From TrEMBL:
Residues 14-241 form the ABC transporter domain. It comes from Xylanimonas allomyrinae. The keyword ATP-binding applies. GO terms for molecular function: ATP binding; ATP hydrolysis activity. This is ABC transporter ATP-binding protein. InterPro entries: AAA+_ATPase, ABC_transporter-like_ATP-bd, ABC_transporter-like_CS, P-loop_NTPase. SUPFAM superfamilies: P-loop containing nucleoside triphosphate hydrolases (SSF52540). Keywords: ATP-binding, Nucleotide-binding. Pfam families: ABC_tran. CDD domains: ABC_DR_subfamily_A.
Amino acid sequence: MVNKPPGDAVAPAVRVRGLTVVRGGITILEGLDLDVPAGQVVGLLGPSGSGKTTLMRSVVGVQANVAGELRVLGEPAGSPSLRRRVGYVTQAASVYADLSVAENLQHFTALAGLRGAAGRDAVTAAIDAVDLGGHERQQVGSLSGGERSRVSLAAALVGDPELLVLDEPTVGLDPVLRRDLWEMFHRLARQGHTLLVSSHVMDEATRCDRLLLLRAGTLVADTTPDALLADTGAPDAERAFLTLIDRAAGGTR
Ligand SMILES: Nc1ncnc2c1ncn2[C@@H]1O[C@H](COP(=O)(O)OP(=O)(O)OP(=O)(O)O)[C@@H](O)[C@H]1O
């Protein structure tokens, strides 16, 4: 497992300066400056279409037409050396429905270059991390939606990446599963992983250590849940977000 370095003076896991991304001839992200601190659960929140996936794709190095500075774990985003250090879970499940949980994870451990005992240990550790013990032999196609999401997460975990980039991992899950997943994210952060987790559900903001609030491709706030509520005087994250948007627009509400 990744170990936390001592002290607080740790370089950010992701450093973004002046990031602009154009897709289909349209500027989707414009001049973003932000840091993702190491060892924390950082929420990337914003409405549908605000650019969360585009930013995540840029961080993991699969996005074209990216301008500006984008460093991930000290390397330029997309560097070949980052392939094993960064895990990415997209919104679409990336696991095979006709294989069992264990077979899926064996496939991903092999892709991560882990063979023999190291591969078996990685599969066991990933299954434990996502609490899927007892489901090893079950076909993924017969799992519940929440269990399937956790297999995708386990697949991203097998190489023990330092940075996990998770695109809307809790979408469509019931409140209990959502809570369990957020608890798991914090457990992973305590082990030294950094998690960048997107959501368009504002009440998930309170579950993050830090928050990046995006709207229409610009950063509305880089804050903590407590500071967000204190700064806006709003009773919850959703109303705080609306207050910030009104402020940015020069509104009076
Ligand atoms: N190839 C493309 N050409 C033009 N516009 C695009 C292209 N891909 C994405 N977009 C636009 O970029 C904007 C940001 O999309 P993105 O998927 O990053 O948003 P998001 O915040 O992740 O949304 P959601 O929460 O719905 O997943 C959207 O308005 C989308 O329509």
